[in-house]
Design a protein that fits this description.
The protein is of the alpha+beta class and 202 residues long. The protein has 2 helices and 10 strands. 37% of the residues lie in helices and 28% in strands.
Length: 202
């Protein structure tokens, strides 16, 4: 039997060459491809982190604003109810309107009630004082502004039109206590209302 060694050698070389080429073609990613992939992943990761923190801060601000609105509405409603049911206003009250930092009136029980600012530690809060008892109308995490009650935002304007019951206008601003480094997270809201005595004493 005669074997053509030259043909066998040629096929062997050709097969080896094809195997090497195939192995080289399926060897994996080049360095440039890896760097590009890393760059894309880094950009996507950065975008995800930014979206996460933006959403977190937005949710935080929403919760603070909700708390402020609930506190402010509660304070306005309670002060309005107390003034409306008062027998008379003892604070200065003029036809043109007298501006004061607090308002004092005779309540339904014949006692004296004062609405105004009260410094609770380092926080200025809306408070009601009657018969030696103090009730805070706003949360301690919120402030009506100022380092003390001489700089707060709470203001009353008492007007006594001729022949008509006295009216009291209430205005104040409520904000998150302190000054966060990120001003985006700080929320504030203004509240105002006008209320008249319903059944003044003769």
């Amino acid at each position: 039997i005669r074997v053509d060694l030259s043909s066998t050698t040629f096929l062997r070389k050709a097969g080896a060459k094809g195997f090497i080429q195939h192995h080289q073609n399926g060897a994996g990613f080049t360095l440039i491809e890896i760097l590009v992939a890393i760059g894309i992943l880094a950009m996507v990761g950065t975008l995800i982190v930014q979206v996460f923190f933006t959403t977190t801060r937005a949710n935080s601000k929403t919760e603070v604003q909700k708390n402020i609105k609930q506190n402010g509405d509660f304070a306005v409603e309670l002060m309005s109810r107390l003034i409306r049911s008062a027998r008379s206003i003892t604070t200065s009250c003029t036809a043109g309107g007298a501006t004061t930092e607090s308002v004092t009136f005779v309540n339904q029980n014949g006692g004296t009630t004062t609405l105004g600012c009260l410094l609770d530690g380092a926080v200025t809060r809306v408070a009601s004082t009657s018969a030696g008892r103090t009730d805070y109308l706003t949360d301690k995490s919120l402030t009506i502004g100022g380092a003390d009650c001489t700089q707060d935002s709470l203001q009353f304007v008492c007007t006594a039109p001729a022949g008509q019951p006295a009216m009291v206008a209430i205005t104040f601003r409520l904000s998150q206590k302190g000054t966060p480094q990120d001003q985006f997270e700080k929320a504030t809201a203004a509240f105002q209302t006008t209320v008249a005595i319903r059944n003044p004493a003769p």
